[in-house]
UniProtKB/TrEMBL annotation:
Protein name: Rhodanese-related sulfurtransferase
One Pfam family of this chain: Rhodanese
Organism listed in the record: Nocardia neocaledoniensis
PANTHER family: RHODANESE-LIKE DOMAIN-CONTAINING PROTEIN 4, CHLOROPLASTIC (PTHR47377:SF1)
InterPro entries: Rhodanese-like_dom, Rhodanese-like_dom_sf, STR4-like
Amino acid sequence: MTYAGDITPEKAWEILTEHPDAVLVDVRTEGEWAQIGIPDTSSIGRPAHFIEWVDGTGTRNPEFAAQLAQALGDRPADAPVVFLCRSGQRSIGAATVATAAGFTPSYNVLDGFEGGPDAFGQRGSVGWRAVGLPWRQA
């Protein structure tokens, strides 16, 4: 079973604001949260969830599905789950695993929090932060 699809950061925010049970799951590493910043969902009255897909060494989190189930608890079965990583790559895997575990619909945010590197090897010209969605330093 495949995840529900790839969505822009703006569409992710629309889903989060229009669906009262929708949740955002940031699957970056603890280091990324601390050094780069985190999405701020306080204005919609629901916290984002932070569950590493891989650790700082790139090792996949074997407890991801269990940690996700614990974090999402008793949400309605049809509540959207929006997955975010740095560039929109790791969150594809997270959305796929979540879908297989019964968390549907699960979406991947294109370009993630800060996008992939540009021609100069720098990030930040696309993604959640670049389009002006709420974020803060962790």
